[in-house]
Design a protein that fits this description.
This protein is an alpha/beta fold. The chain folds into three domains: 6-161, P-loop containing nucleotide triphosphate hydrolases (Rossmann fold); 180-352, Rossmann fold; 354-467, K homology (KH) domain (GMP Synthetase, Chain A, domain 3), CATH 3.30.300. Helices cover 35% and strands 20% of the residues. Residues 31-40, 66-73, 169-176, 208-215 and 239-250 have low confidence and may be disordered.
Length: 467
């Protein structure tokens, strides 16, 4: 399995990098405000609506007088450039070409990587005029966009797709693609390396009571009870405000790529601490990747009954979007509950890689629509005709019918839960895709109406002239 390629956004402060990041990821994860230097750190997200899955990195603005925290931000940009496969250099059409743009462009021209010049904030301006000065940067034909409105972004992504490497490979799983890959993910110092050592029965990775000991993802192939596995111990992803070492920031990409390569993710939470927004964000990335998920509640044996009740309540409230996930209390240090993890992993792997026949999926669809009919659209009821499998890890069911684009979210949720129950899926998300046949007569009614309107107008004018 290939690794996810990476796109880096760089440029001066306040040129719209975070706005473009939000547009590419279809999220509001990056802070956006009309204030230079708001983004001090790197922000990672998964690009949506692209044929090739990839990650995008939002960086802090590069200022001329890079001192103090600005110098840290500049080092972070350099790290982003090192891990990127394609660089998007953003400039501001309204402010025009600046000395800082020239300095940045000079550095980017030295990179042995594709660099795309992106002129932002072109809405309401003559794109040909505003782009003239930027040709002097020597970075080729610029792409004109208005990130805040999404204009030009699809065309930009299409151009970037052609610049991404055909395949970004990595050696750790090259010879072990048939293994069940298990990624151990979580914030620093929650016991990931301790859990890996406990699962292996030997000390294979460094365990030390200091956050951030693991700097990179470590791939460990092994065999247990005749089954082959690969454990991936990832570096902890710390809350941004507490990250001070640049080398720790570099590990974020490795953790996200490990999630992408895994069949099953064990997300470890320190049950003695509160569930944080960072936990929810990382788990959201696991959900986006579509991986089977075990939420491991570590250090469980040190909690009182009241504390355990509180933790369960927190999980139910803060992680309600992960109702499919398996919740598993463990103690990585003492081993309680760890032995059962392999049985849970095998069950989740089977669910994630399940083969589903078309007759079975269609039969379940008929049962679901009989139990709860699809809603009406105007005077016609939505019809769902048949279903077939569209993918694995996560399992995908493609449903064909008429007017499927009008299906409400709650009915889609009903179908998802119905399929999960009938297929007996455990711990893995299930994705439904809907398809309707192309209607060759679509829009014909409007065309006829327009033609008839013109004819009517001609008759009215002719009648007035005769009068």
């Amino acid at each position: 399995m290939s690794l996810l390629p990476v796109i880096a956004l760089v440029g001066r402060p306040n040129v719209g990098k975070s706005t473009l990041f939000n547009s590419m990821t279809q999220s509001r994860d990056a802070l956006v405000a009309d204030f230079p230097g708001l983004t001090r750190d790197r922000k990672y997200g998964r690009v949506k609506n692209t044929e090739r899955p990839c990650l995008v990195v939002d960086t802090g603005g590069i200022a001329d007088d890079a001192e103090g925290i600005e110098s840290v931000s500049r080092r972070q940009v350099q790290m982003a450039l090192e891990e990127a496969d394609v660089v998007l250099f953003m400039v501001d059409a309204r402010q025009g070409l600046s000395a800082s743009d020239k300095v940045i462009a000079e550095d980017l021209r030295k990179l042995a990587k594709p660099v795309v010049l992106v002129i932002n904030k072109t809405d309401g301006l003559d794109a040909a005029v505003v782009s003239v000065d930027f040709y002097s940067l020597g970075l080729g034909e610029p792409v004109k966009i208005a990130a805040s409105h999404g204009r030009g972004v699809p065309e930009l992504l299409e151009q970037v797709a052609g610049l991404l490497p055909v395949e970004v490979t990595d050696t750790p799983l090259q010879d072990d693609d048939k293994n069940i890959a298990i990624a151990i993910v979580g914030r620093p110092n929650v016991g990931k390396s301790t859990l890996v050592n406990r699962l292996l029965g030997e000390e294979r990775v460094i365990v030390f009571d200091q956050p951030g000991t693991t700097r990179d993802s470590i791939y460990i192939p092994f065999e247990r009870d005749g089954k082959r596995y690969t454990l991936i111990d990832t570096a902890g992803v710390r809350r941004r405000a507490r990250v001070s070492e640049t080398v720790e920031k570099f590990s974020v990409i490795k953790a996200l790529q490990a999630i992408e390569r895994a069949h099953v993710v064990i997300y470890l939470i320190d049950a003695s601490e509160a569930i944080t927004d960072q936990d929810a964000h990382l788990l959201g990335l696991v959900l986006e990747a579509g991986r089977a998920l075990i939420i491991g509640l570590n250090k469980w044996d040190g909690l009182s009954i009241e504390q355990r009740t509180l933790v369960k309540r927190q999980v139910d409230i803060k992680l309600s979007f992960l109702e499919f996930a398996e919740k598993h209390p463990i103690s990585a240090l003492h081993g309680s509950g760890v032995g059962k993890l392999f049985d849970v992993v095998s069950k989740l792997y089977s669910s994630a890689m399940v083969d589903m026949s078309t007759p079975l999926l269609t039969k379940i669809l008929k049962e679901a629509t009989s139990a709860h009919q699809p809603p009406m659209v105007g005077t016609r009821r939505i019809k769902l005709k048949y279903a077939h499998q569209g993918g694995r890890n996560p399992p995908v069911v493609i449903i064909h019918g008429s007017q499927t684009d009008a299906l409400p979210t709650d009915y889609k949720r009903f179908l998802t839960n119905y399929y999960r129950d009938k297929l007996g899926l455990s711990g893995t998300p299930l994705r439904l895709a809907f398809k309707s046949p192309n209607n060759p007569f679509q829009g014909l009614k409007n065309k006829l109406t327009e033609r008839q309107t013109k004819k009517r107008d001609r008759l009215v004018r002719h009648h007035k002239q005769k009068k």
